[in-house]
Amino acid sequence: MRGAEAVTGRRNASAKLWCFSLFVASLLLLVQPAHAAEFKTPAISVVTPDWPATVSQLRAEIDSQPLAIDNFNFPSRNQPSQFNAQRITAISQINAVTSPIFSGIELSPVPVLLPFDSALYLADRQSGAINLLIPRYQAGFRAASMFEAGSAGYDAVFLLDRGAGDNMPSRTYLEPVEVQITGSLLIYDIKDPLAGKGEPVKALATQYPNLRRMIREGYVRYAFTRFGVPYVVSIQCHDGVARGRRLSCREASPVAERFLKALRVAGGTPRDPRSNIASYASERPIEYSADFTYRPPGEIIANSGYRGQGGHEDLTVYSQIRFPIEKAPAFANSQSFMNWGDCNLTGRVSFAPTKGDQYRCKRNDKPLVFDESAKENYSYPWQDNFCETRDFEVGQCANGMGHQGQDIRPSSCHLRNDGADRCIPDLFATVAVRDGVLMRSPRQQAAFLLVNSRNEHIRFRYMHMNPARLDADGVLHGRRVTEGEKIGVVSNYQDRPGGTTNHLHFDIQVFTRDGWLWVNPYVTLISSYERLIGGRGREYIQPPPEAPAMAHALPPADLPAHVIKEGESR
Q: pTM higher than 0.70 for the full model?
């Protein structure tokens, strides 16, 4: 009996020690910084342009107009040894022709393809019949709304006016159609389940043997490789029946194909090829912030994802940016599935539009109140909502649909009076996250900031600022801004003033062989916010559950105490 009692005593002692260890471990989780996964930088590939092929193409284009040939010194086909020097000379000569129209074109390290007929332009100039109406040389497209060349490549935006095209669908030109083109030395290597998909375009197969047409993330895209460089032509459109003033992708396609047919070599400058791009360091403060916490990347509000999908965990800091709201604190969280939110029109339970009334979304059990100023809305921890339910295409989300970016509230909510349930907009400044150039047409609700540098080709989108105010402030195509420069104010515009809560929607696109694709900005924002406040955030851990009753905390009776692994319970 004494032996049995001794075994029982040792077992009870071990169980008590095990429970005490569990209790201490729980306390440590609450007081110590959470061990979060390390942030990383993006994977980027570099291409090597084939400039001899570029010069051959340029020569074929110039030969179409005999009056233009005398403007160029092409290398002799019979003297290959002269090729290198004369190749550079020929490219410099085309730059001299086009740079007055496309400023900075010589900065592009990739051959610049644009819908500009240099041969016809030179022939007119040579004959003294130069026509200054640029559309004559651009297949009917207006002068470029924006052209930006830099160390990573080039981007341009062109418009085609109503009635400017031949044999186009009658509805196509209710509004001018905006066409974008990008050629890039850099390609972001993201995990893209749809990469390389698309259909061939028979009508253009001779001119572009590897051309792919696809509709992705709200754009019809035409991707091809020429001179070893990826190019993408795209038009924002609706993948369905045309509605009102919303361009359908079926209508957009003939415009894009007209654009492609008109592309010619317009410039660029050969540079030494680079086999790799050195990743920048993802700088984070050493000391921890006293209060900034964030939920893990990819953790969205329960059941807020499209058709039950979860979030998309992405630990990538895509760019070392300045935080997009001027001052801290700021709070990244959901607008639709938090207090005052409309649950993205998926249904609300016990809802009454009276300030302070309680309700919840039909999709989950999270208790909410009808009050935009509710404390939870303006509190840590932050929460990812990149893959939250929206009717937008997002290839990085499990079901291919999501939010595309991250919602951010400013430091506080100011009410007009005690009975108000809405925050006053336009009180907090938004700023440029990097030096770059703006992309935005008048009246558009979204403003893009494009960065084109030696190791980055990336763009950032700001939404829900009032378009009329953006127009008045000159937030338009081609405006250069510096990091930290004010470009707007946090507002609540979504098709109309007051159409959403007072917040900034911020997202990131990177250039791939399928064009500009959305990536999760959550970790990039965490990193930038840490630098703004000068303190590292803690990954938020849910408080541990209440300690179980002792009877349930005992080790299994059929196992000796010494073989139970640390932290293992019944």
A: yes
